[in-house]
Amino acid sequence: MRLVGSIEILGIRAIGKHGVLAEEQSRCQPFEVDLRLEVDLSAAAASDRLEDTVDYGVLTEAVARTVELESYNLLERLADRIAGVCTSLPGVQSVEVSVRKLRPPIPVHVGSVGVTLQRRVTPPLEAPVLPEAPATSLA
């Protein structure tokens, strides 16, 4: 039996340089990331072993490194990169990534600005199974 569920990791905070303005590209600012992963939880539910599920610690460190070490003009691109990190993990079938800039350089006071995107892992194409030709006798 297949058991599909979700794993949520909310409020990952990291400091990075993302934005269109020169000021944003030279000065670090805080970002917050939420992840919602759709995962095959069958093995983890049966085994109760960390090796059979998504390791939250490893994933959050990889997301934080992406925010901290890479630099993009748009939050859309940053969110897409984070989605790629998530969907590269075994068992992850889809991910919803929300990225928020906590101190955006805009003239109106806001709590944050952000984007949310979803990525689904497409299963590899399998070769079609062709029916076997009937056996023929040459006798």
Q: What's this model, at a glance?
A:
With about 140 residues, the protein is an alpha+beta fold.
Please give the structural blueprint.
Layout: E1 4-16, H1 22-26, E2 29-40, H2 42-47, H3 56-69, H4 75-87, E3 92-101, E4 113-120
Antiparallel strand pairs: 1-2, 2-3, 3-4
Structure in words:
With 139 residues, the protein is α+β, with helices and mostly antiparallel strands. The model has no long low-confidence stretch (mean pLDDT 90). The protein has a single domain, classed as GTP cyclohydrolase I, C-terminal domain/NADPH-dependent 7-cyano-7-deazaguanine reductase, N-terminal domain (GTP Cyclohydrolase I, domain 2, 2-Layer Sandwich). The chain contains four helices and four strands; from the N terminus they run E-H-E-H-H-H-E-E. The protein is elongated, with a radius of gyration of 21 Å. The termini are far apart. The chain has helices spanning 22-26, 42-47, 56-69, 75-87; strands at 4-16, 29-40, 92-101, 113-120. Strands 1-2-3-4 form a four-stranded antiparallel β-sheet, covered by helices on one side.
What are the salient characteristics of this protein?
139 residues, alpha+beta, GTP Cyclohydrolase I, domain 2, 4-stranded antiparallel beta sheet, 4 helices
